[in-house]
Amino acid sequence: MMKRVQALTTAVAMLAAASGPLAARAADTSAAAQLAHWQAQAGTPASAERGKIFFTSKHGGDLSCASCHGAPPTSQSRHASTGKVIDALAPAFNPARFTDTAKVDKWFRRNCKDVLSRECSAAEKADVLAYLASLKP
């Protein structure tokens, strides 16, 4: 039995290596999957309207999400402090958005701390994603 498990583990590892990193990235996630994940974590349906209000409001400081991503976040914008170009955030305007779970987690953590001085809650993330998903060309 142990040899069969080892053989299966080896076969899976070889298959994963053969498919390469591109295949792993391409199937990592989607904006819809991210929205479903954060809604499930929040335990409540997301609201695009709450997401829009959250995205465009300042939360005790000088910044809102829109300060860097634009309002609406459907085209290129610039970081408020560094001036770095930021591609469109809304998935309909930038299909690469929300397709890499590690990047989604990293940027939510970093940007929420910049805007809120804390991490966003699951409900806040779900609401923002619902708002972004509602933006269409």
Secondary structure blueprint with pairings:
Blueprint: H1 2-26, H2 31-42, H3 48-56, H4 65-69, E1 77-78, E2 85-86, H5 101-116, H6 122-134
Helix pairs in contact: 2-6, 3-6
Distinctive features:
137 residues, mainly alpha, Cytochrome Bc1 Complex, Chain D, domain 2
Provide an overview of this structure.
- The chain has 137 residues and is mainly α.
- It has a single domain (29-134), classed as Cytochrome c-like domain (Cytochrome Bc1 Complex, Chain D, domain 2, Orthogonal Bundle).
- The chain has six helices and two strands.
- It has helices at 2-26, 31-42, 48-56, 65-69, 101-116, 122-134, and strands spanning 77-78, 85-86.
- A two-stranded antiparallel sheet has the order 1-2.
- Strand 1 (77-78) and strand 2 form a beta hairpin.
- Helix 2 packs antiparallel against helix 6.
- It is globular and about 35 Å long.
- The protein starts with a helix and ends with a helix.
- The model is unreliable at 1-25 (pLDDT under 50).
Quick summary:
The protein has 137 residues and is mostly helical.
Please provide the ordered H/E string of secondary-structure elements: HHHHEEHH
Biggest sheet overview: 2 strands, antiparallel
Count of runs of 4 or more consecutive helical residues: 6
What are the low-pLDDT stretches, counting only 5+ consecutive residues below 50?
Answer: 1-25
Based on the structure given, which CATH architecture is correct? Orthogonal Bundle
Rg, nearest Å: 18 Å
* CATH homology superfamily: Cytochrome c-like domain
Please tally the β strands and state the result: 2
The side-by-side strand order for the widest beta sheet comes to 1-2
Strand content: under 5%
Give the number of domains: 1
CATH class, please?
Mainly Alpha
Whole-Å distance between the termini? 56 Å
The shape, in one word, is globular
- Mean pLDDT over all positions: 84
User: At the third CATH level, what is the topology name?
Assistant: Cytochrome Bc1 Complex, Chain D, domain 2
The amount of helix comes to: 55-70%
